[in-house]
């Protein structure tokens, strides 16, 4: 079984122009997926609305994984997401992520905390904006 990871999921969701959102989501997220970002829960529908919004804002970027650990059905990483917005500004966030895999290797649940390293104060909620 192949398992997804944060870099692959973020690359497909935000950094691969032309890849259909539902196709990208189906590659990495189970049907019962839910996520908590900085204390706010979202189900799969709300999460996809968030990603759809980000796709209107993001022009490009990169994901750098600093630490990554997988054990059984658990996964954790610390990564930095750099986003180049369509207005030319840059946002960099460090993310601390803990996840649970579904039996098929897709994410079933992610809980994450974000730390903004660079960007305008208005970008602070980029990790959960809809």
TrEMBL record:
This is SnoaL-like domain-containing protein. InterPro entries: NTF2-like_dom_sf, SnoaL-like. It holds the Pfam family SnoaL_2. Residues 23-109 form the SnoaL-like domain.
